[in-house]
């Protein structure tokens, strides 16, 4: 196969022609095609990764264009799902590679099929529910994956190789409470932050796929583009020191569906109820501080109510929510994740 289009890349001696040919033969899945995912898809397609599967459940909105680099206003006019728009763009950038675009909600019923036939999985998501799913599926299938997260001007990334490095649950035993977990829809996001973190993820991917696994980052890396503060949390020995349910006990609870939020369409109300299995205790004052930036809020000790972007939220202290303005469970989960966090 002619690899001359990648000549400037394989001139870099850590890759070389042999490494480039490994890239061309590699298969990856990218879960989420937003701020991180579009940069991952764009960068790794240009780098020559031979097969890229893109999985995303969402459609493009005008406020996405500030940071989601593969999309434009025409995609919005055509009402395109993110995965389909990304597919179209990438085929114009590199027609020699294979793209598989999947418009779907990632959940315990399908995650394993999108992990089992690839060499690497990359995180372009915005919530812990999906990341824990990825972690369970990848550890079970013994597939490496790369975690990435961005909010405001700050981001995190970590490379996970099952049975060799700590997994995500070694570091984060459970998801933070929603009221303490800002989202880009409540705290904002700077495009440069997602660009930096996604670029670091893509670099780690290139290392792994070209046979340079010994040079991967083995820490939880943190960077703030605004303050330029850098932190590297050493993880050596953590896997051995913890009784991780995923790594140590091989208990893949997120693949059973027991940990997934349950959705119920409320007949005749144009509303969906979302119930959390973890029965958390929400702090409505903290939650109000986030919602007040973007919508109308009122609450008492028994219920939190908000109106944002045409949706009405009724949220209860245990995390249960009724979202009025849609009868689509997948869309309700997206809205819940955007404004409350999972």
Describe this structure in words.
By secondary structure, the protein is an alpha/beta fold. The chain has two domains: 252 residues, Rossmann fold (3-Layer(aba) Sandwich), CATH 3.40.50; 78 residues, TATA-Binding Protein, CATH 3.30.310. It contains 13 helices and 14 strands. The protein has an eight-stranded mixed β-sheet, with helices on both faces. Strands 9-10-14-13-12-11 form a six-stranded antiparallel β-sheet, covered by helices on one side. Strand 12 and strand 13 form a beta hairpin. Helix 3 crosses helix 10. The chain is globular and about 65 Å long. The mean pLDDT is 90.
Largest sheet: 8 strands, mixed
Query: Which quaternary structure do these chains form?
Result: single chain
Task: Spell out the helices and strands N to C.
Answer: HHEHEHHEHEHEEHHHEEHEEHEEEEH
| CATH architectural label of the largest domain | 3-Layer(aba) Sandwich
> Remind me, CATH topology of the largest domain?
Rossmann fold
The coarse silhouette is: globular
Total helical elements: 13
CATH class of the largest domain: Alpha Beta
pLDDT averaged residue by residue: 90
Please state the CA-atom Rg, rounded to the nearest Å.
Answer: 20 Å
- Main sheet strand line-up: 3-2-1-4-5-6-7-8
């Amino acid at each position: 196969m002619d690899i001359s289009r990648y000549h400037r890349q394989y001139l870099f001696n850590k890759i070389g022609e042999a490494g480039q040919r490994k890239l061309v033969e590699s298969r990856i899945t990218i879960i989420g095609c937003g701020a991180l995912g579009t940069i991952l898809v764009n960068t790794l397609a240009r780098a020559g990764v031979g097969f890229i599967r893109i999985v995303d459940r969402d459609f493009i909105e005008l406020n996405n264009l500030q940071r989601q680099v593969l999309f434009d206003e025409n995609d919005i006019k055509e009402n395109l799902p993110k995965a389909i728009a990304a597919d179209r763009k990438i085929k114009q950038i590199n027609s020699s590679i294979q793209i598989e675009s999947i418009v779907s909600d990632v959940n315990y019923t399908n995650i394993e099929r999108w992990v089992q036939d690839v060499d690497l999985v990359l995180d372009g998501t915005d919530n812990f529910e999906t990341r824990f799913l990825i972690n369970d599926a990848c550890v079970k299938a013994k597939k490496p994956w790369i975690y990435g997260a961005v909010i405001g001007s700050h981001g995190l990334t970590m490379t996970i190789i099952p049975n060799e490095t700590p997994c995500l649950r070694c570091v984060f035993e459970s998801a933070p409470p929603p009221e303490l977990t800002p989202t880009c829809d409540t705290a904002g996001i700077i495009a440069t932050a997602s660009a930096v973190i996604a670029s670091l993820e893509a670099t780690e991917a290139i290392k792994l796929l070209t046979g340079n696994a010994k040079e991967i980052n083995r820490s939880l890396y943190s960077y703030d583009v605004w303050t330029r503060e850098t932190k590297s949390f050493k993880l050596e020995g953590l896997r051995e020191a913890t009784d991780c349910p995923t790594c140590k006990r091989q208990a893949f609870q997120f693949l059973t569906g027991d940990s997934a939020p349950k959705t119920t369409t409320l007949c005749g109300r144009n509303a969906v109820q979302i119930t959390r299995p973890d029965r958390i205790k929400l702090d409505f004052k903290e939650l109000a501080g986030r919602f007040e930036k973007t919508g109308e809020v009122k609450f008492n000790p028994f219920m939190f109510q908000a109106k944002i972007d045409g949706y009405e939220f009724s949220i209860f202290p245990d995390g249960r929510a009724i979202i009025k303005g849609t009868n689509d469970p997948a869309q309700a989960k997206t809205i819940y994740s955007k404004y409350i966090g999972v």
